[in-house]
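Fill in residues.
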């Protein structure tokens, strides 16, 4: 084996896992930017204040659907859904809210898998405390 080939194989073995991991890691900054563009008009992620057209999403991961106490505009469908928001369920919901929860009032969907994963990863960073 030539030196060059040996170097190439070693380099590929070292670099490949890093590149693959990077490709699957959600980009939280992109999630935040996308959220601010697509969702921020309706949803607040601050402790107090912000838009009220949709429920506050601070701490949404782990919360029961339709349970944000200050939001009075929930659909009967979402309230009755018995969903507890996990990253996986949020991903399904945001792909097509009306397919996951028929008759929901939530109008926005994110078709692109990567962008959706980024937004869900961003939502998961938002904690109440
Ligand atoms: C035009 C306003 C509007 C926009 C834009 C919007 N939403 Fe909503 N969202 C709502 C409303 C209204 C509800 C309540 C739905 C219901 O009760 O069926 C909701 C509900 C939700 C819920 C469930 C919250 C809970 O308390 O159970 C999540 C999660 C959510 N939206 C995420 C998003 C994300 C992420 C985006 C951006 C991609 C987005 N929304 C864009 C209005 C909006």
């Amino acid at each position: 084996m030539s030196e060059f080939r040996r170097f190439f194989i070693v380099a590929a073995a070292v670099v490949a896992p890093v590149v693959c991991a990077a490709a699957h890691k959600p980009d939280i900054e992109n999630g935040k930017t996308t959220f601010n563009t697509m969702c921020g008009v309706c949803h607040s992620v601050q402790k107090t204040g912000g838009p009220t057209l949709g429920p506050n999403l601070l701490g949404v991961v782990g919360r029961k659907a339709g349970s944000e106490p200050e939001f009075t505009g929930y659909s009967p469908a979402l309230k009755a859904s018995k969903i507890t928001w996990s990253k996986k369920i949020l991903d399904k919901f945001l792909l097509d809210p009306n397919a996951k929860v028929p008759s929901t009032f939530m109008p926005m969907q994110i078709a692109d898998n990567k962008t959706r994963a980024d937004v869900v990863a961003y939502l998961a960073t938002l904690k109440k405390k």
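The radius of gyration is 20 Å.
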